[in-house]
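I would like you to sit down with the pair of lines that follows and say whether tokens and residues agree.
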Amino acid sequence: MAKKKDVILTRDITKVYQMGEVQVNALAGVSINIKQGEVVAIMGPSGSGKSTLMNIIGCLDRPTSGEYFLDGELVSNMTDDQLAVVRNQKVGFVFQNFNLLSRSSALLNVELPLRYAGMVEGRREKAIEALTSVGLGDRVNHRPTELSGGQQQRVAIARAIINNPAIIMADEPTGNLDSRSGDEIMDLLLNLNKSFGTTLIVVTHDPKIAKLTQRVINLYDGLVAVKK
């Protein structure tokens, strides 16, 4: 069996924020690797650095120092414009608050990454296919306000997978949902991993969610906690 490659590889990355005259070390030298097709949870208390790490892994931010390789490509030194291109091509995001355009239909929300990528021909058909794959083929023209919380998160997942990303970053994906809807969303995300081999990274504080993953990375004070 061929050895799976690292989709995520960080080497001693730090992130320092300047808050007036005070420096805040959000990450203090984090080295992790996540294999292709893995399902990993990132956990930690408030202020541990997990949101900062998620932003760097998702190419929303750059580390202050250290190296980050995404799908074999060094991205830690890229410009904002270069990061935007990589982010659109290789990362799908699912957020706790869904982050949908309230005045746009489910179809238009899912089409957004394709619009940013400059795709014109076949865009509508691809978006409908993505919505159908998450069980919303009959809701393509509904706006977010006409959908339940669980349905809105399904729209967000369809948007996340539209470009066949190397990884899906899910930030507290069940945080605003009731337990039944939350279970359905996690089942959907895990099935995407099983069906397509998509690498899934879940940022969560919920041990129940973490138990569904293959591995947990615990952060404390900007460092990866070492098991004793």
About this structure: The helical segments are 50-57, 80-90, 106-116, 123-133, 149-161, 179-196, 207-210. The CA atoms of residues 218 and 226 lie 8 Å apart.
